[in-house]
Amino acid sequence: MGFIKLVVFGFVGLTVVYWSVALFARSVTKERLENKFDAENPEGDRNTRDAYIADGLREYDTSIRPKLVGLVYIVPTVVIGTIIYTINAS
Predict the structure, then answer these.
(1) CA 54-45-40 angle, 5° bins
(2) Which of 1, 40, 46, 76 is most buried, with most CB under 10 Å away?
(3) Neighbours of 14 (CB within 10 A)
């Protein structure tokens, strides 16, 4: 029963961490795109700026960076699994 609680609460905790990191990474990318556009085009109009940011976020979505956030699930699971195996094997 304790193992099931560990898995359920661990998954819930990792899901919260995953979404927090994913939203933060996307927010940082959007902010970087906004600052870059504003620096390059001080008199740019709003529609051009929005299109530039949308294109940049589409590129971000297809890159490897958002997929690496998935390591939030893999790394802790492997570490905890290794610890449990090591403790029970000895």
Answers:
(1) 75
(2) 76
(3) 16
